Amino acid sequence: xxxxxxxxxxxxxxxxxxxxxxxxxxxxxxxxxxxxxxxxxxxxxxxxxxxxxxxxxxxxxxxxxxxxxxxxxxxxxxxxxxxxxxxxxxxxxxxxxxxxxxxxxxxxxxxxxxxxxxxxxxxxxxxxxxxxxxxxxxxxxxxxxxxxxxxxxxxxxxxxxxxxxxxxxxxxxxxxxxxxxxxxxxxxxxxxxxxxxxxxxxxxxxxxxxxxxxxxxxxxxxxxxxxxxxxxxxxxxxxxxx
Length: 242
What we know:
By secondary structure, the chain is α+β, with helices and mostly antiparallel strands. Helix content is 57%, strand content 15%.
């Protein structure tokens, strides 16, 4: 039997790996268009397993889960897509509609958090990099052009403010890693303590978005709708990965 040269095997395998995400995305869109929502969701999930980290994939996956009747996972991926593109109106509207359908309350944000969530963490990082370059340029101009030093130093205040703002925005998104969001998989009871016999605090609907405060064994402490200190089983929540 004639053997295939090794370099051809490597080249072919590489081509398949590079083409796979685009091919899978096309197949998933076709499946969704044919109302095969479970198949579409499975295909989009396979893209995530390949390491694809893309807002459009998360958004389409959320749509597929929503159409297939899986509200918790639809909300999970709408929210993940929102982390990537917080200003996208389609993501915002579909997330709100999914939460309303689930009977869940949308996460509340303070007046200080709201402007910092206009840009994603990656956008704040890019803005910080651009501001740093501008700051270095203005400082260099101030050093090289003594007559324009006052102007150059004055201009430095602009990128300096942008750097501070970028740091605040980046830190705002970092809080989602320190206190991650979770989606409730099924309607369950939130208790006052991490015990099965602890007093019932309130009922929480399937699909609700909660923030994790701490964990203790098989229990997680959450905040939901400004109610703090409630505990529920970890098996009832699905962590988000911003």
